[in-house]
Amino acid sequence: MDDHAAVAAEPGSSAVVVDAEDADDFRLLSVSWNQDGSCFAAATTADFRVFNCSPFHERLRRRVLPSSAASGGYTYTLVEMLFRSNLFALVSSSSSGEKHSVSLWDDDMNKIAYAIPARSAVHAVRVSKDLLAVVLDRTVRVYETLHPGRLLLTIPTALNARGLCCLSCHVASSVLACPGTETGQVRVETNLGKRKAAATRFVDAHASDLACMAMTTDGAVLATASVKGTLVRVFSTMDGTCLQEVRRGRHQAEIYSIALSPNLKWLAVCSDKGTLHVFSLRILYGKKDAAGGKKSAAAGSVMQTDTASNARSSLSFMKGVLPDYFSSEWSFAQFRLPETTRYIAAFGEQNTVMIVGMDGSFDPVNGKQIVRKEYFRFLKEKNSPPIRTLTT
User: Fold this and answer.
1) For 184, phi and psi rounded to 5 degrees?
2) In this predicted model, what pLDDT tens digit does every residue of 315-364 receive, in sequence order?
3) Percent helix, strand, coil in the chain (nearest 5)?
4) Global pTM?
5) CA-to-CA distance for 76 and 146, rounded, in angstroms?
6) Domains of the chain, with CATH numbers?
7) Which of 69, 203, 267, 348 is the right S-S partner for 279, CB 3.0 to 4.6 Å?
8) Pfam families this protein is in (predicted)?
9) Residue 11's Cα: distance from chain center in Å?
């Protein structure tokens, strides 16, 4: 998968190599992390690209060439990876905005495995080995990944223009989280596509509309923020218990992204205030806690502990007497970012937080004081893979 090529849009069709020189209207449309933070994908008006994070380099580039609109009438606006595999979920839209579809691209076979037409704009897509979730205005449609067009479930939601949806990706678990139909409500679906009976749970996460959410890869823990953007809450998806609440700030902010570290020791939040906040979590997780010590009640279970290193108000001992603000947990580390750019964060190796910006920047930072480790302009990367001709 280390090359440039073009993507044809019809199921079963093969790619044709096209010169991918940047056009005058070239721009970045979206970026997304894969499930373990080892790679990220970028969709542009000309192509989609995949970048390796450590060490940083461009892994592949696929030129967008829908065969049904060779004149450029379609654009792939979203790309979702399945770990580092050969499968990519692609969202395409016509230039008129009237036609939308979701395709599964098999890069090893060099073809679209199948395409699913959508009745309205697709705001997000999530993919696992078993499931493909398509997020529309007021519904989430869940399909079987390896059985084209087999619809498992249609989930009603509140208006979801932000495309909020999380999907677990472990073989042993099948958990999906999305907005419910009520304000600030999260709907959690478990055992999707499994032999066990599917179960639905509702979590009243916030008093305001949801703005952002993130979930662990096994689906056990969910973090959410509302449009107020002052608080982030962490829940167990098993029973809806609120495990921890942390405060980003006093003033309203738009939360761009939430990230949970794989060991559940840290939580990172990016907002339009130009700050990356990192919080310490105090959650007992699975067979062992985040430090590898005391066992929990059952494998895969989560519970709250008493240890954390987040900052607190000097008046926090008066919790229950003064307003909640004075007993809040604040971030223990911060990193300043330009306020003019939208960023999404993920956790990398060795206590590293990685940040990708819609300005085409990739910025790994680490340490309690959060110092910049590296910085790349990924759309200007010179060491891109060589072009090769793909035979049909």
Assistant:
1) 70, 10
2) 444 444 444 544 457 667 888 888 778 999 999 877 788 889 888 887 77
3) 5, 50, 50
4) 0.81
5) 21
6) 1-119 (no CATH), 123-204 (2.40.10), 218-382 (2.40.128.630)
7) 267
8) PROPPIN
9) 26
